[in-house]
Each structure stands twice: as structure tokens, then as C-alpha cells.
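Our preliminary data section would be incomplete without showing what the modeling component actually yields. Below, a chain of 319 amino acids is followed by its predicted structure, encoded as C-alpha cells that our downstream tools consume directly.
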Amino acid sequence: MSTGYYAFHQHFGHDTGKDHPETADRITVLEETLKQTGIWNQLAIHEGKTAHLPDILRAHSKAYVDQLHLIEPEHGCIMVDEDTPMTKGSLEAALYSVGTTTQALDDVLNEVHRNAFAAIRPPGHHAERSKSMGFCFFNNSAIAALRAADVHHLQRIAVLDFDAHQGNGTIDILQNDKRFLMLSAFQHPFYPYTHYEQSKYTNLVNVHLDKGADGEAFKKGVLEQWEPALRGFAPELVIVSAGFDAHKEDPMAELNFEDTDYLWISEWIQSYCKRRNTPCLAVLEGGYDLNAFGRSAALYIAGMLEPVEASGQSEQAAV
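Predicted structure:
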């Protein structure tokens, strides 16, 4: 079965300004890298769709959603929080991020594709039930997880998050719900400085990475902490909050991952999913040095392909 790639052009309307790290150039650079390395031709390309309101309301309060519509500016830019700008096109882009993610979810669960990558922006994993923060308006991964449970009737859904910043919003929304297992690896202590006390949650496994930690520390945490939890939970679906800002060249964190660490985690996840015949959806989160992000995300996507294809393309993408 093929790998689906889902994106949408409406994200260009979310204009964060020339000095903001989360820009439309991220998607442009990723797609250029995929094409240059030949990976693009091995993907099934889909144009995304806008969201259905019931999907959003499983994760976010109606008052919060209404507030976002009320504050959207007709002109110029406002700051929803200190890091999160909103312009006239931002809410449409956020709605397309949700809809594109749920479209990809439905396709992998309906066996249209073996797995899928949703190249969406704005990202989502910092958005809490009633709060925008960290460049995020709606929590795409949590929304997909709740749709998988409530619409597709899955009982065990794992959400894996390797962004350098912990997905506090995902934890806020899915906390202590036995249908979900959350596996998180992130720099600690670091933004957002919340939801890191694992003892408060019955469905969370944290891998704390010290400032300066490299890919070997990440691999150790995955194999020693994530893997036993994942095997014990036996998920029917794996959702990945795929952030690439732990890279050593990224200005938004202080970790030292290499390009190939993202290939490793992709192949580790796909190996697990293939053995268990488990569908997998990856949703884009962070990654802000354009060159490092393009290379790393392309390698991650290469790892989602069938093994014979992934190995050949990995060498090309690493050049």
C-alpha cells in the first residue's frame, strides 16, 4: 500500500510576518526537497479540505472556537498570545489544518493508504482545550485521535510526539482517558514548562531530554520507555506529532539531533506498525531552520515508504 501526502495551499493566507519562525516557506522547502530527492514521485498527493465543526468541538470548547472567529482581524495582525499571530487568513488555514488531518486519518483507517503525512500549518500540539499558544490554534493530533475513537470506534490510540517542545495541548485534551496513550520526548526544562509531571496523568510517558542531548539519548529513551509502553498498550492506530526542531541547527531549541535521527524514528515507528498491521498518521508540528527542516522531514517521510524504497531514497535525501 502507498503513503499519502496531504497539504493545502490555503496555508499561505496565514501570514506570520518575515521575522516569525513559523512561515509558509516551511511547506515550500519541504516539498522542494521531496521533489529534488525523488521521494515526491513515490507519494500519493492529496489536496486538503477544511474542517467539520463537530471534529473541532470534541477537542475544544465552543466558547473558544467562537472567540477565535470573533477576534479574527479584517486587516493587519493581532497576537492571540505572545507567540501566535493571527491575520485575515489565519483561521481559514487553521481550519484546513484540522480538515486535512482528519481527511488523512479517514484514508489510513479506510485502507486507502498504509500511512500518511499531513504537511499542515499552523501546527497544533500546544493548543489546549480553550487556549491558543505556541503558534497553534487547534490541536490537530488530538482532534484526529478523538475522531478515531468517536467516529471510527477505536479503543486504543497512541499519540507519539518527538517535537523539542512538549505537546502540552495534547495532554490537556486527552489526559487520563484510557483510550489514549501519549508518548512524549522533549527538551526539559523548556517551553511550555507545563504538563511534564508524569505522575499527574495515567496515560502519559515522558522522555526528558537535557539541554544538548543528541540522537543517542533520544533513541535510548524511545527503546527503554516508549517501546514497552507501546507494546503493552497495543494501539489500533498510531498518530505522530512530528516536530523537527530538536535538530542541532534549529534556533528554537537546544538539542543536537542529526538528520538521520528522524529517519531512525520514522523507521522504528513504521517497523512497529507494519508488524502489527497498525495504520499510522504523522502530523507536522515544529521545525524552523528551513534547510535542516527540509532535509529532516524528507528523511522522515522516506522512512514511511516501503523499506526497499525508503532505503534508496534515504541515501539521496541525506546528500
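Confidence is low (pLDDT under 50) at residues 308-319. Residues 3-318 form a domain with the Arginase; Chain A fold (CATH 3.40.800.20). Preliminary results of this kind motivate Aim 1 of the renewal.
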